[in-house]
Amino acid sequence: MTVLVVGSVALDSVETPFGKADDVLGGSGVFFSSSASHFTKVQLVGVVGSDYPMERLRGLEGRGVDLAGVETADGESFRWRGRYRHDLNSAETLETRLGVFSNFRPKIPAQFRDAPFVFLANIDPRLQLEVLKQVNRPRLIACDTMNFWIESRRHELLELLGRVDLITLNDGEARQLTEQSNLIKAAKWIMARGPRHVIIKKGEHGAFMFSEDRVFFAPAYPLENVFDPTGAGDSFAGGFIGWLARSGDLGEANLRRAVVYGSAMGSFAVEGFSNARLLEVTRSEITARIDEFARLVAFDTSLPA
Ligand code: AMP
């Protein structure tokens, strides 16, 4: 089943302790699509400026990502500049230049409106709400957000919570949004406002999925070399939703499996700059990593006689 994603299509400039990359392909929509395209067909909606290297983005088409919803507008592309110091869990935003995103109004092409899975990746919550007016009763609507929007568009974000089935956000964002320091209380606060499931990501410390009174935890894959954490969250979401769309099963057991697929895709994303590693990873590497997750958390509960 197809996934429709609306998100940022950016040029990122990133500094990590291991190197530097300028004006590389980035944005929540791009990372999500690169990841989800391993599992299912993806329809991407976003905007780029006339300066965007479209030939690089077109590389996604060969992977089953339909770019008919990516508009080119006059002006500068969205740019994000960030730095990671030795704690690779938190990005320091040095600059956000909205460029053509400031005047963007998403237009969902007619052939995208029936997508059964919709992911509202990290963009202005006002745009996320506009998308929902243009789609026809998807089976699952999920969204993401970040501190930038929690600070500047809190009201619209709360309205959005009432319209989605699931939200993914990191622990800092969950605390900032809910003003609760305890993550269980934070998840309950969010679920009380709409979503049936809340996924709270904790970077290298894994991810929790809260659903009613149940909680599931998946570790992050222990990597010896993390090059660039940018896009880990969006790639997690791409693996999670991509797997759900591929299997079409929204039962609890499959949601748990999807969290592990999300963790696996997040771990590939951080092994290279931009979306490079995500694009080259093979089906068998993904399967092998899922198996390693199962071994990572397996233990024997029986007591010696
Ligand atoms: P993450 O998965 O959280 O690491 O997301 C990283 C991506 O988010 C980068 O590629 C950025 O281009 C993008 N990004 C950063 N700030 C914003 C913002 N305010 N709105 C939308 N996308 C953003």
Could you provide a short overview of the structure?
The chain has helices at 28-36, 54-57, 125-132, 147-152, 154-161, 171-178, 183-191, 232-247, 252-269, 276-280, 283-297; strands at 3-6, 10-16, 19-26, 42-49, 65-73, 78-83, 92-97, 117-120, 140-144, 166-170, 197-201, 207-211, 214-218. It is α/β, with parallel strands linked by helices. The strands form two sheets. It has a nine-stranded mixed β-sheet with strand order 5-4-1-8-9-10-11-12-13, sandwiched between helices.
Q: For the record, what is the CATH homologous superfamily label?
A: Ribokinase
Radius of gyration: 18 Å
- CATH topology category name: UDP-N-acetylmuramoyl-L-alanine:D-glutamate ligase
Query: How far is the first residue's CA from the last residue's CA?
Result: 49 Å
Q: Please give the number of β-strands.
A: 13
Q: Topology as H/E string?
A: EEEHEHEEEEHEHHEHHEEEHHHH
User: Structural class, from helix and strand content?
Assistant: alpha/beta
